[in-house]
Write a structure and sequence with these properties.
The complex is a heterodimer. By secondary structure, chain A is an alpha+beta fold. Chain A folds into two domains: 5-106, Ubiquitin-like (UB roll) (Roll); 109-253, Orthogonal Bundle (Fumarate Reductase Iron-sulfur Protein, Chain B, domain 2), CATH 1.10.1060.10. Chain A has helices spanning 37-47, 109-117, 139-145, 156-160, 162-166, 173-183, 191-198, 212-216, 223-241, 246-253, and strands spanning 5-13, 23-31, 67-70, 73-76, 90-93, 100-102, 105-106. In chain A, helix 6 crosses helix 9 (223-241). Chain B has three domains: 3-230 and 346-405, FAD/NAD(P)-binding domain (3-Layer(bba) Sandwich), CATH 3.50.50.60; 237-342, Alpha-Beta Complex (Flavocytochrome C3, Chain A, domain 1); 416-528, Up-down Bundle (Methane Monooxygenase Hydroxylase, Chain G, domain 1). Chain B has 15 helices and 22 strands. In chain B, the strands form five sheets. In chain B, strands 1, 2, 6, 7, 8, 9 and 17 form a seven-stranded mixed β-sheet that branches. A five-stranded mixed β-sheet of chain B has the order 18-16-10-21-22. In chain B, helix 5 (212-219) crosses helix 14. Chain B starts with a strand and ends in a 13-residue tail after the last strand. The chains are: A alpha+beta, B alpha/beta. Chains A and B meet through helix 1, helix 2 and helix 3 of A and helix 3, helix 4, helix 9 and helix 12 of B.
């Protein structure tokens, strides 16, 4: 298997001013061992077809702009190497479950609205004056939320989530992981404000434990774990108030439970 | 033409812009604040910062020590009043960021940890493993969401400032999703668009770093200050330009040549790997020139060796270094050294401002890498820039908000409306018009190789004169270049053309300012004038837009307590 060659990229195109339907266009791109799909797209854009539209910036897996479905799997184009495909045609499509604006560019308004809903900021009765110094936090306390603070909002988890695909009201993996990140932060006092939001009908209880969100996350975040932990916290609360749906409790106990 | 109106409009949604927005919103909830950014705020290039941010938070440290290190690092070109303001505000900004939820790394007693960084006398750089930029950006962005008075224009590209009667009245911007050009009126505008690293061929900077705000201000008559001061960072991955953080050396990593020698003993014996970036980048160039570097498919390089730190320290303190080295070089840094070479990283220069962020043009403010206060002078110390974004972002946001409180509501009448219509004609009538011609990408590539070759680490008169000549040609050629995509919807080809136009302005300011500074100071290293010349050149260059080329003037450096001395480490 050689690490260099010419790859064929079959790229999904959608130009709403030109055609009402998406179509595919094939491009060739030279590659070496360290060429990523994003490099190929850039090569095409610069030398072959300036009309191709996609988002990117950091090219080092941290800005979260460049997600696409590559051979059906949501991945960052800056972290997917051409040589992995060993000369087979590589299909590049926009992330699934989002409206397409143009070519590989999807509309993520829905997530941006959900992000605000979970109140992703430290909630306290009163912010201490800076003169009093930092809020102390041990490494163990940091560890409780640390992985969930690593979300880069790349949307791969929403693209992988079959529940979100069926029901866009579902709060979904990244937003829930972020809500959990703040709930578990020892500096935060906003649990009561956030609980109603993530325990509404379309919150955590919709998750059916498929777990694809955690598989595709490029930063090692485990949104499914956050969702399950939130359910357990919710179930504990439910014991007090009896407002939580029973179907949710079944989902904890029966991981194979239906969708 | 559609128009919107706000009290304070901030261009850019990175660290400086978000901090400015929060400062303006905190001043008064009645103020209508808006952020316009060509990307979603969490994509801003702040996200790529790795090592940490400097602030005096320990008893063993002092504000004077931080100030002196910064001024010496700047090779005595920084304005010392700006530096004193900066070090004084830095601890408060670090603590506020912690209060807002930034997941800082912690000491056993629960305090924020500090690490060593280049050019700093003591450990004063606070950090969140090696992803401070990412965490800082998301913390600020998420915190900004709690202010209902902060509106956002995500993925809108600002094309011009609207200046009438000697003051800024707003901007024109393209809503990228629809392609529509609109006017956003504002009583005060803050430029926080970051640097322009993409002018260079080999850079750590993301694709979006195209100097938009620098060019916007420059075209509105505001000078660009100290643009010749371009920082090269010593440790980039040779194939991609991806940054490997200085924290790798802060934690104890070595730079080694092909003879297995820690070569910095010949250049910065007192500091070794914790020397300032300008000196270490030049040291690597000398090693390369004298044949003591490794040769690879992407040119010459040296080794950054962290193997002796052990897997546990790398996992805990440098997980992103590990991730990047594994993914993009295919090595485990716990067992193999990382190949690195110097490359463009940061602009010390930028839009001229005073300590409050005011540019001199009523209604216009700037902060962060886009601005030049100046606190970085001829060379910035690592981990000062994120703090700079917070300190001066907050100052500029507050100053802009206070100014806006005193102004009447701008109206969409003439001449502002006329200016906006002219801008619409420029973009849709001229930039998009050519059907056949050179590609934008070809001109961009030539600009990048020109800057790299002629206005890089080592510079001389003839080479820079050549750069100025080529840039002049590129500016004419870009007028006839073809934007292949004629769509309205999400036309990234058009945005690239406008970005290239901005970059050429910034590139010219860099090249002409560099040509006229006939001395060596900090990052500006001339083989034909190898000595620092305080008598003639201890002053800021000020590049003004002229009819055919920049006009370079000078302004004095503010010295408060630290007299210039020879810069040895």
């Amino acid at each position: 298997m050689t690490d260099t060659g010419t790859a064929t990229l079959k790229v999904a195109r959608y130009r709403p001013e030109k055609s009402t339907k998406p179509y595919y266009q094939e491009y060739k791109a030279a590659y070496r061992k360290d060429t990523v799909v994003l490099d190929a797209l850039n090569q095409i854009k610069a030398e072959v077809d300036g009309t191709l539209a996609y988002r990117w910036s950091c090219r080092m897996g941290v800005c979260g702009s460049c997600g696409a479905n590559i051979n059906g799997t949501p991945r960052l184009t800056c972290a997917t190497f051409l040589h992995e495909f060993k000369g087979r045609t590589i299909t590049v499509e926009p992330l699934a479950h989002f409206p397409i604006i143009k070519d590989l560019v999807v509309n993520m308004d829905d997530f941006m609205e959900k992000l605000v809903r979970i109140k992703p900021w430290i909630i306290r009765d009163k912010e201490a004056p800076p003169e009093e110094g930092e809020y102390k936090q041990t490494s163990e306390q940091v560890d409780k939320y640390s992985q969930f603070s690593s979300c880069i909002n790349c949307m791969l988890c929403y693209s992988a989530c079959p529940v979100y695909g069926l029901n866009e009201e579902f709060l979904g993996p990244a937003a829930t992981a972020l809500a959990y990140r703040y709930i578990m932060d020892s500096r935060d006092q906003g649990k009561q404000a956030r609980f109603p939001i993530i325990h509404e009908l379309e919150g955590v209880w919709e998750c059916t434990l498929v777990g694809e969100c955690s598989v595709v996350c490029p930063k090692g975040v485990d949104p499914m774990l956050a969702i399950q932990k939130t359910k357990i916290l919710g179930a504990t609360e439910a014991g007090k108030s009896l407002v939580k749906p029973i179907s949710g409790l079944r989902a904890i106990l029966l991981p194979q439970g239906g969708s | 033409m559609e128009h919107f109106s706000h009290d304070v409009l901030i261009i850019g949604g990175g660290a400086a812009g978000l901090r400015a927005a929060i400062a303006a919103a905190e001043l008064s909830p009645k103020l209508d604040v808006a952020i316009v950014s060509k990307v979603y705020p969490m994509r801003s290039h702040t996200v790529s910062a790795e090592g940490g941010m400097a602030a005096v938070l320990r008893d063993y440290d002092s504000l004077d020590s931080h100030a002196y290190d910064t001024i010496k690092g700047s090779d005595f070109l920084a304005d010392q009043d700006a530096v004193e303001f900066f070090v004084r505000e830095a601890p408060r900004e670090a603590i506020r960021l912690e209060h807002w939820g930034c997941p800082f790394s912690r000491d056993p007693d629960g305090r924020i940890s500090v690490r060593a960084f280049g050019g700093m006398a003591v450990k004063r750089t606070v950090f969140a493993t090696d992803k401070i930029g990412f965490h800082l950006l998301h913390t600020l962005f998420q915190t900004s969401l709690k202010f209902p008075s902060v509106h956002r224009y995500d993925e809108w590209f600002v094309t011009s400032l609207l200046v009438d009667g000697g003051r800024v009245e707003g901007v024109t911007a393209i809503e990228i999703r629809t392609g529509e050009l609109v006017t956003i009126l504002a009583k005060a505008v803050v430029i926080a668009t970051g640097g322009c690293g993409r002018i260079y061929q080999f850079t750590t900077n993301g694709w979006i770093k195209t100097g938009d705000g620098m060019a916007l201000a420059y075209r509105a008559g505001v000078p660009l200050k100290d643009m010749e001061m371009v920082q090269y960072h010593p440790t980039l991955l040779p194939n991609t330009g991806i940054l490997i953080t200085e924290a790798a050396r802060g934690e104890g990593g070595y730079l080694v040549n092909k003879d297995g020698e820690r070569f910095l003993k010949r250049y910065v014996p007192g500091k070794m790997e914790l020397g300032p970036r300008d000196i270490i980048s030049r040291a690597e160039m000398v090693e390369i020139r004298e044949g003591r570097a490794f040769e690879g498919p992407y040119g010459s390089y040296v080794h950054l060796d962290v193997t002796h730190l052990g897997e546990a320290v790398i996992e805990e303190k440098l997980p992103f270094v590990k991730e990047l080295a594994e993914r993009y070089v295919g090595i485990d840094p716990a067992h193999e050294p990382i190949p690195v070479r110097p490359g463009q990283h940061y602009m010390m220069g930028g839009v001229h401002t005073d300590v409050s962020g005011f540019t001199g043009l009523p209604g216009l403010y700037a902060a962060g890498e886009a601005a030049c206060v100046s606190m970085n002078g001829a060379n910035r110390l690592g981990s000062n820039s994120l703090t700079e974004c917070l300190v001066f972002g907050a100052a500029a946001g507050k100053a802009a908000a206070e100014y806006a409180q005193k102004q009447g509501k701008p109206s969409f009448g003439n001449p502002v409306q006329g200016l906006a219509m002219t801008e619409e004609k420029r973009i849709y009538g001229q930039v998009l018009k050519p059907e056949k011609g050179e590609r934008i990408s070809a001109i961009r590539a030539e600009m990048q190789t020109t800057m790299e070759k002629h206005v890089g680490i080592y510079r001389d008169e003839n080479s820079m004169a050549e750069a100025c000549r080529i840039l002049g040609q590129l500016k004419s050629r870009v007028r006839n270049a073809v934007v292949e995509d004629k769509d309205h919807v999400f036309n990234t080809d058009l945005v690239s053309a406008l970005e290239l136009d901005f970059m050429l302005d910034a590139a010219e300011a860099i090249a002409y300012a560099a040509l006229d500074r006939r001395e060596s100071r900090g990052a500006h290293s001339r083989v034909d004038y190898p000595k620092r010349d305080d008598l003639v050149f201890m002053k800021h260059s000020m590049a003004y837009k002229g009819p055919s080329r920049p006009r370079i003037e000078y302004s004095p450096v503010t010295v408060t307590r630290w007299k210039p001395e020879e810069r040895v480490y």
